[in-house]
TrEMBL record:
Protein name in the entry: CENP-V/GFA domain-containing protein
Statement: the UniProt record of this protein carries the keyword Zinc: yes
Any Pfam family matching the protein: GFA
Recorded superkingdom: Bacteria
Record bears the keyword Oxidoreductase: no
Domain CENP-V/GFA, residue spans: 2-114
Family: Belongs to the Gfa family.
Amino acid sequence: MLQGSCLCGEIRFRVHGAPQGVSMCHCGQCRKQSGGIWSSAFVPEEDLEIEGDVNWFEASVTAKRGSCRRCGSYLFWTAHDEDTISFALGAVDGPTGLSLEKHIFVKDKGDYYALRDGVEQRD
């Protein structure tokens, strides 16, 4: 079981299922909110246990993003029409045991870095 928290510890989470879709997102929203590339994996909503008061931000008409009200850590992303939730791999305590599967929204990536790791890239 993976577990993690925000920077200040106000929000804690536990992943009870097997994470899927390990990716690094290069979209403009993730870059602005995280200050860089956002790495995540997802599980069905019922497999993610969250403790603390998450600040949910309606980032678009299709999805919302969850962060800590106190320290601002960006922790979660979920589409309105799906029953899964993504969690920040950078917020996981200790090793994840996961491997990167894909880079997403690479057409929106910053011009200040290159992707040369050989991992699948999706526009």
